[in-house]
Amino acid sequence: MGISGGSQLFHHANVGGFSNLLITLKHRAASKDRIGHPIVHFDASWLGRKFAGHDVYSRIGDLVYIFAKNGVSVVVVLDGPSRHHSKKARAARVTEVEQARFDALILKKELLHNIDLLRNSSALPAIEVNTMNSTILTLEGELKKREKKFNENAALPTNFAESVQHEIDNVRRELGDTEVTVSVVEAVTQADCVICYHAVRGNSDGALANDGDFIAVTGMNMMLIKEFKFKKGWKRTSRSHDDALSNVTVAIGYKDIFQSDVLDKLSLDVVPNYTALKVQQGYRLAPHPLFEYDRGHASIRTAILVGLGCDTHPKGCKEMGPSTLHKVMETLEEHEGLSEDSLCKFYATKAGGWTEGHYKLFSQSARYEPGNITADDNVPRFIHDPPVTLGE
After folding, report:
1. How far is the C-alpha of 190 from the C-alpha of 365, rounded, in Å?
2. How many whole angstroms from its chain centre is CA 233?
3. Checking phi first, is residue 316 left (phi over 0); if not, alpha (psi -120 to 50) or beta?
4. Closest Cα to residue 345, out of 356, 354, 336?
5. How many CB atoms lie within 10 A of CB 103?
6. What is the DSSP string of 58-95?
7. Which residues lie below 8 Å from residue 24, measured CB to CB, with a gap of 6+?
8. I need a labelling partner for 352 at 20 to 30 A (CA). Which of 63, 70, 80, 368 fits?
């Protein structure tokens, strides 16, 4: 997986509190005509880094408990014991993390120096004291940014998988008899692909993750739950669990899943109080929503990825960013029609030496993304149904 310029391609919506997120998840489940409870997948590694510096396992357990208590089935997905070399952090990211660590040490030293000066500031004019206070607040903010960058990219403990499993076992005991399911699965290598595999097949209504690649690969099948805060003072022993999270932000490739005309079609028995979502939703529309054009076709999505840069064509097409590709797609849609073929034909007109056939090969190869599913029949599973032959 991997895409260049992903942040410009997806819509973001602040749905408010957990109760509104729950409405959205029920809507997504109902729109797929799937019988049963909404299903949410957790990217355990992302959560492990997000909660670095806190009680990681307890926080993950709290999230599982909140969703399950509100009638949502949860699948916690762990990375496998090893990941392919192509999935390792790029050198630039390693450098950025080390730079953040170094900067944090310098800032911490400067912060302690200023705090020491403030303690001995009784003889200083008030204006200088105010300046020192302001400097300390600025340093504290910068230090938090550096520590967050370091924590979010730090290596997880070697016993991470076992500790998560232990915590989920505890949560199951606390939940007791329940209609929803809570499970933990381990990917063959990368958890991302497992989540995308289930999303494409309509078996996931949302994912706690913060990687735009998910939407790029799955299109309208994916909704990322990427930001949230625990309500202050909330505990598992609290009587109410439908307001346990606040400031919930989701990312989507298709904005129409939140539009009122879609919600109006749903039965109030399925989605009670759905009008609250219309009032409280807050959009940040994507500058270049390319995946609004794919009409659910994986072939168009993978052709978009090839143009921008992805695993099968890392550098993308020359001078082809989201803005340029957006204009190209609008033109193709209006004239000859938008398809994998028309996009690859256009790419061949750009400098680079590749033919239309090459670009189609790159696009088709992207649909061989492994699902990382361990099956009893040992038959490989792919996120998409791959082409029968490459270059067809």
Report:
1. 18
2. 27
3. left
4. 356
5. 17
6. HHHHHHHHHHHHTT-EEEEEEPPS---GGGSPPHHHHH
7. 15, 206, 223, 250, 257, 258, 277
8. 368
Q: Edge to edge, what strands does the sheet with 39-43 contain?
A: 182-186, 73-78, 39-43, 206-208, 223-230, 245-252, 11-16, 282-284
Whole-model pTM? Answer: 0.77
Q: Does residue 392 register a pLDDT over 60?
A: no
Domain boundaries, the chain: 12-86+158-287, 92-152, 292-366
What is the SS3 assignment for 149-207? HHHHCCCCCCCHHHHHHHHHHHHHHHHCCCCCCEEEEECCCCHHHHHHHHHHCCCCCEE
Read off the DSSP letter of residue 17: S
Q: Look up residue 382 and give its DSSP letter.
A: B
List the structure tokens of 128.
Answer: 């200088």
Q: Closest Cα partner for 320 from 296, 351, 292?
A: 351
Q: At what angle do helices 340-347 and 356-366 cross, to 10 degrees?
A: 130
Give the pLDDT band of residue 275 (cuts 50, 70, 90).
very low
Which is it for strands 282-284 and 245-252: parallel, antiparallel or unpaired? unpaired
pLDDT given for residue 6 in this prediction: 65
Cα–Cα distance between 260 and 33 in angstroms, integer?
19
Interatomic CA distance for residues 62 and 298, integer angstroms? 35
d(CA 315, CA 134): 44
| pLDDT over threshold 60, residue 44 | yes
